[in-house]
Amino acid sequence: MIRKYLKSLVILFGMAAILLTLANISRVDTASANPPPTSLMVSLWRGDLGYARLANVSSGIPSIGWQPWSGPVGLSSFPGSGDIQAQSMFRVGQTLHQSYWRNNQGYSRTVPCAGGNPDWNNATAWSGPVGLSSFPGSGSIQAQGGVVIGSTLYQEYWRNNQRYSRTVPIVSGQPDWNNASTWSGPVSLSGFPGSGNIQSQSSYVIYDFTFPNYLVEEYWRNNQGHSRTVPIVNGQPDWNNPGPWGGPFVPTLTGSGNVQATAGFDIPWFWCN
Asked: What are 250-261's pLDDT values in tens digits?
């Protein structure tokens, strides 16, 4: 039974522990199906230390009972020099794609899954670095994000408080970088709630049973979080009908120092199972 409802929900957004207010979400009621739980894995960097944790998703909503943060992990095992500037995590089929930026140089790797979880022990070596010369805009990289919906990867990044975005088709289970769209933008930060420079940006999909339900977008400015939901219609984000930006939220986070980077990705119950 398809139904629409208006409902205010307070949930803990784990990558930055943001409290989200979800409104006008369309979903399929799968309570009677009793599906296995889907999880959300989130990552946070503060003071050049990385943390991660999991949350279960029930009926399309991340549960209040988050697992404890793991970490911290330092930068000694990450190629490059300088502070963490941005990170991204997105799932393509059975593979997790990770990337990060240090000193305006980007590095990336892939991680297979095993038993429904990332198989960190068999991750590829980090590739890179990639410089900023092929990225439109000026100034240092500030934030990046990526999320796969259907057969399309949606990417975006921030430089000088301006956002650029593009799409990349997924072909045979891999991003087809050679046929990526051109970068669109810039979009100015002035149209986003809050004050101060952009600190981080990330996106992830919440699954309701076996299909994408809605997209969550979040960003941080001045150590305050803002988030919104975007419905997924016919396998694509409906950018014309997003929910309002919620926030600012200032939850108690693990670690210390300014928020440097956040990321997250869904782990559906059928992943590698």
From this structure: 766 889 999 999
Query: In 10 A of CB 159, how many CB atoms?
Result: 22
Query: What pTM does this model have?
Result: 0.84
- Which residues does 57 contact at the CB level (< 8 Å), separation at least 6? 37, 38, 39, 40, 63, 206, 207, 266
pLDDT (tens digit per residue) in 152-161: 999 999 999 9
Token reading at 67: 């697992």
Q: How far is residue 8 from each of residues 25, 92, 244, measured CA to CA in Å?
A: 10, 31, 12
Structure tokens at 4: 């629409």
- How far apart are alpha carbons 121 and 128 in whole angstroms? 20
